[in-house]
Write a structure and sequence with these properties.
Radius of gyration: 18 Å
Number of domains: 1
CATH superfamily: Alpha/Beta hydrolase fold, catalytic domain
Strand content: 15-25%
Shape: globular
Distance between the termini: 25 Å
Order of helices and strands: EEEHEHEHEHHHHHHHHEHHEHH
CATH topology: Rossmann fold
Number of helices: 15
CATH architecture: 3-Layer(aba) Sandwich
Strand order of the largest sheet: 1-2-4-3-5-6-7-8
Structural class: alpha/beta
Mean pLDDT: 93
Low-confidence stretches: 181-192
Largest sheet: 8 strands, mixed
Length: 302
Amino acid sequence: MFEGFTDFNISVQQDITIHGIKSGTGPPLLLLHGVPQTHHMWHKIAPALTSRFTIIAIDLRGYGASSKPPSTSTDSHKAYSKSVMATDCIGVMENLGFQRFDVLSHDRGSRVAHKLCVDYLEKVGKVMLLDICPTLAMLEQTDKYFATAYWHWFFLTQPSPFPEALIVNNPEIFKEKFFGHSTSLSGKAARTGNYITEDALKEYVKMYTDEEAVHGMCEDYRAAATIDLAEAKEDQERGRKMKCPVKVLWGRQGVLEAKFDTLNEWRLVSEGEVSGESVDSGHYIAEESPEVVLKHIWQFFA
């Protein structure tokens, strides 16, 4: 899926190694994946960008071939906080020789990108976010519709090992729930056709049978419901906002279109210019509508 790319494994902290791929020439563009996915979600996007960008696509900690730190009996979920994941990204990019870079992100990766832009203002030039609103805004506006559509947010945050055991022991049902080709994440009709390729699907499904990966995914969501919220509220109180230009795309068949004023939510946490629009897609925009995403990448990051 990534012909011409080279793999790397970079040690960013003690006992933490981040896996990724790299190719291309030009300004650096860091790609951060969503859930339940890996860097493979960019296979329809990344190869087309290498003529104008140096593309770096990583597996977030807890996912794919990156490290999956365990939790402890007194765990605050700090190991999977988006601030810590943002530090992983800085470690990777500095190791590769990049002191400043742009970011393209989806879903959970966009939550990491948000913290990157807040905690490392001088590092990020521009950021593009796919199908996401700020974590704090989404949870503070939770209602029956949102809780039903985003059921996994509340399931995966349950104490270990409850969700882990259910997923590992019945991975097929979770694969269909997330990746049934006829529906989007919200349950609404998505674009027709098997937009997630079999090769990519195999990579995603691997995680459902890997106990460490499933635990990492759950910890990601537990952190989102605890320490990430606390840090977001602290950023809000201290007036710490994103300052770089922000472009947001969201699926017209998804939850954001029905439930949130997406651009306004990002403007509330940003001091830079925020632009964007809904596109003909469900949640998995980079795989459902890659040509649209590419068009916006050329326009925004050029």
